[in-house]
Design brief:
Elements (H helix, E strand, L loop, with lengths): L3 E2 L6 E2 L9 H17 L1 E5 L4 E3 L15 E5 L6 E5 L3 E8 L8 E5 L14 E7 L3 E3 L37 E3 L8 E4 L4 E4 L8 E3 L27 E3 L8 E4 L4 E4 L9 E3 L29 E2 L6 E2 L7 E9 L2 E8 L3
Parallel strand pairs: 3-5, 4-6, 5-7, 6-8, 13-14, 17-18, 19-20
Antiparallel strand pairs: 1-2, 7-9, 9-10, 11-12, 12-13, 15-16, 16-17, 21-22
Length: about 325
């Protein structure tokens, strides 16, 4: 009876009484194929868009015999490299120049890896004879004790992401296209910085900030412009651009105006047709005054409050409404 060949490694399986005088050679060939399957390395230049590793029963030095296969060459189109349709495993080093083309690896007549081979990357693959699987495409728990560098996308789906579970003094940084510290966690000081590698408070933003949802400040004071810079502050309503305005350089506050000029606080009703007063005072405590003035009294007109009755002639009146009734407050020209 003649020799037969194994399915997976194409080893020559000899029968008793056959191959007289060549048993040693055949056995050595089988051992070489076993050695290549465990530790063998070969570099294969891809020759076409539909290429295949060489394999043959009993022969040695063939491409598929090797555990480690380096693919080289330049792709001219979307390319498939094939192996024999038998169970096997490979470490594949994709050193090809891919351009904009894809490269897949599959058993003959079967299905390749889900995402194909990545340019400049090494893959741990196995096949059941009909489908090629990329082990790290669907791995279980992975622990990396050294640096983990990822050149492609990272997708966290279906589980929590925890950084620094052991609470070590380890900073966390996310870099944008133009800023090395777009997001920075200062572990030692328990602070977060946006575009800021040295946050001075729990949350420190360098640059503009925009919040589209609600903001709830609870349990602490709110301080704006603590450094005393010449910065304006503005609150806008539905139709009024300057519902509340702080003029940083002039140290004045405006309601309805962004240029308060006549007083420290100026109220501008900002409409000739709205039919509303500039200021409405609603005093629920009937025992208290509506307005309280503090000033310096003097018998002449040199202070803010005067007892001088000879102020001058009446110049006009100011209309006020008290409890639904209009009244007029007279005002006088000074001497």
């Amino acid at each position: 009876m003649a020799s037969t060949y194994s399915d997976r490694l194409n080893l020559e399986l000899q029968t008793t009484g056959e191959n007289s005088g060549t048993w040693g050679t055949i056995t050595n060939n089988n051992l070489q194929k076993l050695e290549a399957a465990i530790k063998g390395y070969v570099s294969v230049a891809i020759a076409s868009t539909s290429d295949a590793l060489t394999y043959e029963d009993g022969s040695t030095g063939l491409e598929q015999d090797n555990a480690i296969i380096k693919l080289t060459g330049s792709l001219t189109g979307n390319t498939t490299m094939q192996c024999e349709a038998q169970e096997n495993w490979f470490i594949v080093d994709n050193a090809t120049s891919m351009g904009n083309y894809t490269l897949n690896f599959k058993p003959a007549g079967g299905t390749g890896t889900t995402d194909g081979l990545i340019a400049g990357s090494k893959h741990l693959l196995y096949t059941d004879g009909s489908t090629m699987f990329d082990v790290l495409d669907d791995a279980g728990n992975i622990t990396a004790n050294g640096t983990l560098d990822v050149a492609g996308a990272v997708n966290f789906d279906g589980g929590a992401f925890t950084f620094n579970e052991s609470s070590a003094d380890v900073d966390f940084r996310i870099e944008s296209n133009g800023n090395a510290n777009a997001f920075f966690v200062d572990a030692g000081n328990d602070r977060i910085g946006i575009f800021n590698a040295s946050p001075s408070v729990a949350f420190d933003v360098t640059g503009a900030a925009k919040i589209s949802g609600a903001v709830d400040l609870d349990g602490g004071a709110f301080t704006w412009n603590d450094t005393g810079a010449s910065l304006d502050f503005r609150c806008e309503t539905n139709t009024l651009a300057n519902a509340f305005f702080i003029d940083g350089s002039a140290d004045k506050i405006g309601f309805g105006t962004n240029s308060p000029a006549d007083a420290s606080v100026e109220i501008n009703q900002a409409s000739t047709t709205a039919g509303t007063a500039c200021l409405s005072l609603d005093q629920d405590d009937t025992d208290q005054e509506f307005i309280k003035f503090d000033g310096t009294s003097n018998s002449d007109q040199s202070s803010s409050i005067t007892t001088d009755t000879s102020v001058g002639s009446i110049t006009g009146h100011i209309r006020v409404n008290i409890n639904g009734t209009d009244y007029w407050i007279p005002f006088y020209a000074t001497n």
